[in-house]
Design goal:
alpha/beta, TIM Barrel, Rossmann fold, Immunoglobulin-like, 3 domains, 8-stranded parallel sheet, 23 helices
């Protein structure tokens, strides 16, 4: 073990106690440490600053080294250079009075150096094992560089694709998002948080951030407690139950009180109802922003935030600069400062930083782990399984590995955009573009031509905003018509055209809300011109959100949604386009026909005048004059190169009591020509309740592999817990009565059967 300097650290080592041992040992250690701390040093532990190596906000921390020496910093994030991390930790250990180690955080959202698909794409795999593996690899890589705290998973439910950060979560569904949250926490934290290759997860954004009004980032959120408890809060609770060590506040207000000052949320719900024992940290300058919300000056809002139950202030330094004054004036209590300080110190203890503050800095491990061939192979596998085949008319796909393909579009040759939004540690200059990836896979079997096709966006200012953080896409200064005409000439030389269109990576993510969700008009014009050539057209769609693809669905014969697949996007796309991998992804957020349908989600309530989904307008029913209620692509939808047939549902009994189980069985047949995976989805509807209930809710799924011609019986066990919900009194109950079970390949195309809860 490396030599650790400091009285408390030496005493700690003398006990021969690992950080994973009993709470009693941890309490004894922290009690002794806090007894030696001044009030100023305790407040210093509540200060989280930025190292500035990744841009995740507008404020830059200053005088960091001096503040560490003075015991005024508890943690640093966005520092990823191992030598800087070690040097910074040495300042804390060798030059501060109490030698308390620093915790180092980073936005490790969907990978570190090896980048996996954006979270919305990861969720589309419906494979919790792969999702957990992606987080495990991210933790292995990030910890080798000295980082021990990941600001992930983001578990916000979102049913409004105008909100750019829908790309960072698992979509619209409560059940699926909860399962994804559990998998990511387990991947980051493993079985031992003090191990050198695990890191503390941070669940965000608590709470309801994905329901921001009008899909505009940082906007207000307003909803009933009934909806909150049944639909939006469960994924946070699932992540906490999985052992997440920390949670991050959201920017929005809840019941009129911003999250970072909301005592009901942070103390009553999180601490008292859920029993959370971990660290609560704000989002970037969220305490300072309480002033703009109208809650007072920096001293007032800092006191409000601490009193609400927040432990750590990210970047704004309101805690650092005002809490001592508020304590002297009686506006905060020492007990609350102690509480917050204790949670910060406990996080460091659990991570093993008091035992060895340098345990996460290992140059040798970094050389062998970060960006390894095995990690990239796994990234390629996961990316391919995240892609969703939305349309495949006349079985255009898979393509044959012969002839000439023209890869045309602004996303064809931009490696920097392949990792997707919130890939702050990606090595953009080393990431292959779509064309480069295809060439690597296909070699000289297929002749690949390429062309920009059109600019990403017609408006150069809009394009500048959409290609920030090094994600630049070259612009052609000529008129749109000239660029497209050149592209058509290239297309005419090919046997098939791959149109690489859609969003750039920074058109989704934080502060990337959109009021229109079409493919940009100039890209659609390119697509029309390519179709006019008569060549087979495959739209390879890049997007961080559901888009409105009504025209594309009606006119383009094949559409493969590849989200942003991470480091190995290009190779993975080639794998799927040419049939080495059969697509198996299924969307986890409904695709609307137009923006006017938003919010749109499958688990909606019936009205007293429900629309019959005939497709025709019905007067005095809950429908639109100008568009069907139905989405373009329903939740859970995704095609394959093969076909699957679903038999009828068979129940082993028709009634369920409180202690029993009903088993639902259905036969699934692979009736096509390819061995492939299928995600079988189970939904349940509560037909009569004390409150209105959704038309169906996802309650289970199984991803199975079937060889062509194979038939498999898939079984689901349904128990009382699957029928429970929060009633009007917020009691978690299952009410006797009639229920329906639906099983199918998506939320729309289902078989059904009924049973009764006694």
């Amino acid at each position: 073990m490396k030599k650790v300097v400091g009285t408390f650290l030496l005493a700690f080592l003398a006990w021969h106690v690992s950080p994973a041992q009993s709470n009693q040992k941890m309490d004894e250690f922290i009690n002794q440490l806090m007894a030696k701390m001044t009030v100023e040093e305790k407040i210093g532990q509540l200060n989280l600053v930025t190292g500035g190596e990744a841009t995740t906000g507008t404020t830059v921390s200053t005088d960091v080294d001096a503040k560490i020496r003075n015991g005024q910093i508890g943690g640093i994030f966005s520092m990823s250079t191992p030598s800087k991390i070690r040097k910074t930790q040495e300042i804390a250990i060798k030059q501060s009075r109490l030698k308390i180690p620093i915790i180092f955080g980073m936005d490790v959202i969907h990978g570190y150096r090896t980048v996996f698909p954006i979270p919305l794409g990861l969720a589309a795999t419906w494979d919790m094992g792969l999702i957990q593996q992606s987080a495990r690899i991210a933790a292995e890589e990030a910890t080798a560089d000295g980082i021990n705290w990941a600001f992930s998973p983001m578990v916000d439910i979102s049913r409004d694709p105008r909100w750019g950060r829908i790309s960072e979560g698992a979509g619209e569904d409560t059940y699926l998002s909860s399962k994804v949250a559990e998998a990511i926490v387990q991947g980051f934290q493993g079985d031992n948080l003090a191990a050198h290759n695990t890191m503390m997860a941070c669940v965000k954004h608590f709470a309801l951030y994905g329901a921001a009004e009008s899909g505009r980032d940082y906007n207000s959120t307003d909803m009933s407690l009934h909806r909150m408890y049944n639909e939006y809060l469960p994924p946070y609770k699932a992540a906490i139950d999985a052992g997440a060590g920390s949670i991050m506040t959201s920017f929005n207000d809840i019941n009129g009180v911003p999250a970072s000052a909301n005592k009901w949320l942070m103390t009553d719900v999180l601490r008292k109802q859920w029993g959370f024992k971990g660290l609560v940290v704000t989002d970037y300058t969220a305490v300072n922003e309480l002033t703009a919300h109208g809650l007072g000056d920096l001293q007032q809002v800092s006191a409000l935030s601490l009193n609400a139950g927040v432990d750590m202030d990210m970047v704004g330094e309101g805690f650092l600069t005002t809490l001592k004054k508020s304590l002297d004036e009686g506006k905060v209590k020492l007990a609350d400062i102690d509480r917050a300080c204790r949670f910060v110190l406990e996080a460091k203890y659990k991570l093993g930083l008091f035992e060895d503050p340098y345990r996460y800095c290992n140059d040798q491990r970094a050389k062998t782990v970060i960006g390894s061939a095995a990690n990239h192979a796994k990234a390629r596998e996961i990316a391919a399984k995240s892609f969703v085949l939305l349309k495949n008319e006349n079985q255009i796909l898979p393509l044959k590995k012969t002839g000439t393909v023209a890869v045309i579009g602004p996303l064809a040759n931009s490696g920097a955009n392949m990792p997707g939004t919130w890939s702050v540690s990606a090595e953009l200059e080393k990431t292959a573009s779509l064309v480069e990836g295809m060439k690597a896979v296909l070699g000289n079997k297929v002749n690949i031509l390429t062309h920009l096709g059109t600019n990403l966006l017609e408006d150069p200012t809009y394009q500048k905003h959409a290609t920030m953080f090094g994600r630049t896409i070259v612009r052609d200064p000529r008129k749109e018509e000239e660029i497209i005409a050149d592209a058509v000439k290239v297309a005419q030389q090919s046997d098939v055209v791959v149109a690489a269109l859609g969003e750039s990576s920074e058109m989704s993510g934080e502060s990337s809300s959109r009021s229109e969700l079409d493919i940009p008009k100039n890209q659609q014009n390119l697509l029309k011109a390519l179709l006019s050539t008569g060549k087979p057209i495959v739209l390879v769609l890049f997007t961080g959100r559901p888009l409105t693809l009504t025209w594309e669905d009606a006119h383009v014969p094949a559409i493969l949604n590849v989200w942003f697949g991470g480091s190995e996007t290009g190779k993975a796309v080639a794998d799927v386009l040419y049939g080495d991998v059969v697509p198996s992804g299924k969307i986890t957020a409904t695709f609307p026909r137009n923006v006017g349908q938003i919010p749109i989600y499958y688990a909606h309530k019936n009205t007293g005048r429900p629309y019959g989904n005939s497709g025709d307008f019905e007067k005095f029913k809950s429908n639109y004059l100008d568009v069907s209620n139905s989405p373009l692509y329903p939740f859970g939808y995704g095609l394959s190169y093969t076909t699957f047939a679903y038999g009828e549902i068979h129940l082993d009994k028709n009634t369920l009591d409180n202690d029993g189980t009903i088993q639902a069985r259905i036969d699934i047949s692979n009736t096509g020509n390819y061995d492939a995976e299928e995600t079988v989805q189970l939904y349940i509807q509560d037909l009569v309740g004390s409150v209105t209930r959704p038309v169906k809710e996802l309650k289970g799924f199984q991803k199975i592999f079937l060889k062509k011609g194979e038939v498999r019986s898939v079984k689901f066990d349904i128990q009382l817990k699957d029928l429970k919900f929060f009633n009007n009194d917020l009691n978690y109950v299952a009410e006797p009565g009639d229920f329906k079970i639906y099983i199918g390949p998506n939320s729309r195309d289902v078989k059904e059967v009924s049973f009764k809860l006694l």
